[in-house]
Design brief:
387 residues, alpha/beta, Aspartate Aminotransferase, domain 2, Aspartate Aminotransferase, domain 1, 2 domains, seven-stranded mixed sheet, four-stranded antiparallel sheet, 11 helices, binds pyridoxal-5'-phosphate
Amino acid sequence: MTDLASWRAQFPILATCTYLVSHSLGAMPLGARDKLARFADQWATRGVRAWHEGWWEIGRTTGDLLAPILGVPRGSVSMHQNVSVAQAIVASCYRYDGPRRRVVMSALEFPTNLYLYHAFERFGAEVVVVPADDPVRVDTARFLDAIDERTVLVPFSLVLFKSAFVQDAQAIVEKARRVGAHAIADVYQAAGTLPLDLAALGVEYAVGGSVKWLCGGPGAGYLYVRPDLAPSLAPAVTGWAAHARPFQFEAGSIDYADPSERFQTGTPNVAAWSMAQAGYEIVANIGVARIREHSQRLTGRIVDHALARGYEVRSPLAAEARGGTVTLAVPNSEQVAQALLGRQVIIDHRPGAGIRMAPHFYTTEAEVDSALATLDELVSAGAGVVG
Ligand SMILES: Cc1ncc(COP(=O)(O)O)c(C=O)c1O
């Protein structure tokens, strides 16, 4: 088994700073640059012929590479621009003019999901937002109670973006199924740091992107649709790449292709999806179970340190209930976050939450310890410190 630290050489930014922000933007692997260079060379030398030399099928080939990381069969993942688009494609498969028109979501969802479904209110959707009493977790029982026979869709994040709380996906999927609703797992904060077996979970849909733990860069969102459900779906958000015979350029309404092509829209984003493959290859090569083990050890170290220092931990304390991030509220969190950035400790800050710190497979224990020492120093120095 290769030492995890040996992967560090593949990520140039690690030589320049303490990179603890993979919940936001995973570090770029050198392979991404190679994939982009290959794309540019193909465009330069093959021109339009490149469409038939891998470009047109890039959504399928990229989705197939991602499928084992999500724990789903090949051919069930389509590629898109981002979660917002993938979620819109799902939302557009449903009607909102009958008795079953409710979309049940938690107030702690990533806002893009809330914005999208609220926008569907113009089509009759009734968005039920389940409030959260604390910034860390959703009360599962309360969330489940909101799902009933009036519910059409249940979009939920498997790992909450502000606190890294791991939701009880099994309970949510089962309750949705019992009342005849469909669940959509947003796995953005899980894929690449939490082992996933979405096929076993039985969830109808999953959406996510590649910017974070997958180290795949922007423009590579994805959508999983449960294979038995896929053939009956007719997304209204569609385009010619979803047509059974796109190159016949037939007029009229669409004759959908087989899955997963039927969830496509228009021209594939060849550059972004090629680039994303470099990150997927590394994550698959290491194995997410191993990444999780390393992550739990390092996030546990951050939690223990914070508790010893009396900092407020706004992430679950139990390792199994926590994703890859630890959120800490310290006095003057926002200024402290700025000062950390000034000291080349790359983290971020979210309003109402605090400083988010995320070690990934390429992070060492020594880096975590030195980041925590810098944090202590800044907190002790008080408000308004500039690093
Ligand atoms: C859980 C979750 N969903 C979605 C997004 C982003 O959505 P999009 O891909 O549409 O930018 C993020 C973070 O950027 C996120 O953390």
